[in-house]
Task: structure prediction
Amino acid sequence: MLHAKHKTGLVFFPAFDWAISPTHPEREERLLYTQDQVFEEGLLDIDGIFEYKPDLVTIKDVQRVHFCVPDPWAVMTESHFISAGGAKTVGMAVMDGKVERGFALVRPPGHHANRVVHGCRGFCNVNIEAIMIEYLRRAYGIDRVAIVDTDCHHGDGTQDIYWHDPDTLFISIHQDGRTLYPGSGFLSEVGGPNAVGTTINIPLPPNTSDEGFLYTIKEVVLPILDDFKPQLIVNSAGQDNHYSDPITNMNFSARGYAELTRLLKADIAVLEGGYSIEGALPYVNTGIILAMAGLDYDHLTEPDFNPKRYRQTDAVTRTIEQTSAKVLKTWRQRKMVAEALRAREDCHQRSRRIFYDTDQIYEVQAETIRVCDACAGALRIESTSDRRVAMLGVHLPRKGCPDCKAQAYEWYDAADHKQFDHIFMQDNQADLFLTKPKPAAA
Amino acid sequence: MIIGLDVGGTHADVVLLSQAGLEKQAKVPTDESQLFETVLAGLDAVTEGVDPAKIRRIVLSTTLAANLVVQRKLPPVGMIVAGGPGIDPALFAPNEHYRVVKGAMDHRGREIAPLDEREIQEAAEQFKKEGIRYMGVVTKFSVHNPDHEKRMAAIVAPFCDQVFMGHQFSGNLNFPRRIDTTYLNAAVFPVHKAFFEAVKGSLAKKGLNVPLRILKPDGGNMNFESSFDHPALTILSGPSASVMGALTTAPSSGATWILDIGGTTTDMALLIDGVPLLAPLGIEIGPYKTLIRALQTHSIGVGGDSVVRMEEGALTVGPDRTGRAMAYGGTVPTPTDAFRVLGLMQGGDLGRAEAGLTPIAQQLGVGLETAAVRIVEQACRQILDAANEMLERINSKPVYTVHELWEGSEIRPRHLMVLGGPATQFAEYLMKQFDGSVSVVPHCEVANAIGCALARTTSEITLFADTSCQLAVASGELFNSEIPAAFTLEDARELALQLLREKALRRGANPDHLELEIVDAYQFNMIRGFTTIGKNIRVRAQVKPGLIQGYDPIGGKLRREDL
Result:
């Protein structure tokens, strides 16, 4: 009889009756072979591994994170309530002390979902990690959280949500944005003026293999985590760095993923992408579960794995070493970097065009942050989409100071329906979400 | 006429049912070391003076296999196992004579490493040298492709009396459980065979040449012949006998609790719309986790003879038992003594029961009768708390589709049925605490034997079809066949029902009254790139547990000419 060294909770929700479209990578079949492998391996029978049924998230949970336009029902399906709920269930099991660690093996994923949601981008509608984290902060009083996103794609949605939050360390390790969707996640992206340094991007060159990933974890991620001292570590566990993934160009293996999981010691892992549904997911997920539970994974090798074939070149190694050095330098000098950034006159403003590749929506955003030394700062986002919808979202952070609170409500109160179709206030201090009523038609 | 005989830990209960209803009933003491004599004594008790020609069927539920496991009296078995990527298969060894060999299939049942035939033969030869006569072969994902297991069995067969293959026992995915299941079947086989052949022989001498059937833990039976292929299916059939007995008068809609309250324990099970709820995977016994289909049951140490004590000012009942109630010469007070004090039970020594309860009454600061009531109430509370915990576990069982999660409703039983020795007495108090109606199963002292007699033949199958490989596999049925690329979900359902019908008939089901149902049917489009390369289809079908056709629950009569 096998015993888990670390009590580990699992939510497995493969959504066998849900797809973005019949031939989309995010389809019914995605976790079928993973289920087969996990069941056949008998993982759920192991003493110390517990499977939980996912709870549903509430609208309140979603609105603590997102401005959904026009409302959450319009941008979410039942499946999103469950996958975010699965992450929340695992988070609660960990916080309640029922298990030491947990893994939400759920779909659909969430790390490309920004604070403002007009629809689906990068297969994501709502950010399931952020919804879980903000719930846990509210329910259990957690403050400092680190998110390590090991999906092959830059976790731009999570980055957007925590861009201004100095209490959330967001580290994304991904294939260089010049070679892969969503085309972001460069070294220069380090967070807004109130949170310089707590956004960290580690772009890796194509064809990075186990060696490069594990180097990055050991040499960059772990030391930074030691400095930051989070109360909770969340791993956005995308599995598309695998050498067999059809839409990326990396050479990571299942045992490499297991090793990464062992090193990272995340409290909670949440499945993100990964579309090599036969060649990678069954093995990678098994590896992650074994590693989280503290079980041996030496016999876990993909049938076609050839370490020689997937060894990284010296050029790749050098690039990774250089990138790592730069990341560490920025982290150590983050106060100086912050001063330099704040010296810029336009540092409180950001404007962006965002493309929702899955739903074919164009969004234009103008963001204003109150530069503040006392809190994460009041935030105002104006967003319009090519669906002819204009929205104003005002965000008051969880630990907002009185000045930022005043600023936030001033923005909200002054907003006019002549300019915006929807006016929202996300007051995370009072845990309230307000929708400004439209004036009666004249 | 049908005879039902259920061997329990202390008694063997036996009934003779005819078209007139319950003709005879008897209880004989169980001698675990002489089970054969116990069974014959039980049969004698109801067959005396009955024309043997009128007896058409005998259904047995015994503790034979379970005792072998619990008492660790299993004979040596040679296990040969091939794994693949994942957990080291050496960690799954259920026994001493266990060899891991080369060879592997992937999750879709495609060979990823070939067998080394010489290695397998050497292992079998070595086992034979060590005097091992029974062997088991198991491979990972053999339910998706049993070719390796079949080849291994063919290599091993010349070196042993009997070889068992993992895929013949269940279509469910779970490699470690498949190993345990195969091991138990091989290990139980020789004793099972000797025992039932002896029973059959003895019955023949008495002129009873009737079909013999054996109860399984899923609430169904199988015939004598097919039990030799699946001898471990006889393990832990006891709880299912009671549940099937209660089924005779259970409501046909809604959720219903069934509580079997004995001297030592209370066993609980659930009916949903008149059908017993099955456990998700299989029975667990001793250190073994299996794929042997079973009713979902839960047992707690609260019964009529459980020890009653005061702990930190609070009353507790069980979980231990130290012999009989005080009224019957025991040394510690029990719920039975409380019933005696309350006048709900006759027999035994009232004075001793009162003496047993006196210190408890004094500590509680109440009269004897009040103390007795509190004891019974406490026992009922513990039983219902355990039932609620079991319900909580069932209701929180994960599901894997949006539809089931969104639409799934919670089970909330509104009725409770009690059987077992102190059923009547407990029922009166359970009624006050249970939010719903409570009833006592008729003939509750032998309802388990009645359940045994009336259970129908059950079986189940799991069919996997992969139209891109053009293969369909139904493991337990040893069915492995090519299918056309255009094979559909509807074809799969039909094939599954056809295979299930054949299997049920082989197991002894009545062809005129087969109640087959599809439990699950999923179809996945397999997309590679942006092209559909085929369909991955999974269908599960079963004969659901229930009573044989022709039993009239209202009259309690058997309306069948042939039985």
User: Anything to note?
Assistant: Chain B touches chain A through 47 residues (CB under 8 Å).
